[in-house]
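Moderator note: this is an archived Q&A kept for reference. The question asked for a predicted structure of one protein chain; the sequence and the answer are reproduced below.
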Amino acid sequence: SSRVVEIQSQMSERAVELLGLPDDRPCLLLDVGCGSGLSGDYISDAGHYWIGMDISPAMLDVAVEREVEGDLLLADVGHGIPFRPGMFDGCISISAVQWLCNADKKSHSPPKRLYRFFSTLYTALARGSRAVLQLYPENSEQLELITAQAMRAGFTGGMVVDYPNSAKAKKFFLCLFVGTSGTLPKGLGTECAAGEEVHQAKFTNERTRFRNIKGKSVKKSRDWILEKKERRRRQGKEVRADTKYTGRKRRPRF
């Protein structure tokens, strides 16, 4: 119905706004759970390019009939994001990610599927970019499960809640940063009557020593190496223990 289309395009607009894309150049975005391509239309209108993934052949058929601008891929994001590293300048998802919390098959483990999705998404996104995932959580446990797997995969950021005091207009956007800790954007309508803000959950990480101007640790510095190792540990990979020699330059040998 036209009302659904209207809400969908409002949420797409808000998601793209939360990505904070540069004005001066077109970007390539990933649309997770793109459906019939309504959010893609908004991305195209904004002058950007997109690739959409969806699990439903019927929805993608509609997108093809509508002659959307983006490229389409039939896939289950619970199996991971099959693109090369750093390919996308951002990712949006409208009303899709909560489906990963359901175990549709006996073999499905929601935490594993969420982690697979987030860890491969993290890799497919360019450093310094964002993913903004609008979702309809069933309860706070779902929100915590989704957020925890995103953080485990290396993202920083957290939940931006628009209109938290309205039953109808309340919207959840998981706003995730890749490789740099940005400031979490403010939710719309978060000013209370008295003008005080509603405090939202923020997720910070304590790796803030010796940042250079851009907010990242200097590449190949000891801190940069320790951060990288810490991130790989969080991802459950085997990493050598840190010692006083970690990140030391070797003498040139001839």
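Archived answer notes: Residues 193-213 have pLDDT under 50 and may be disordered.
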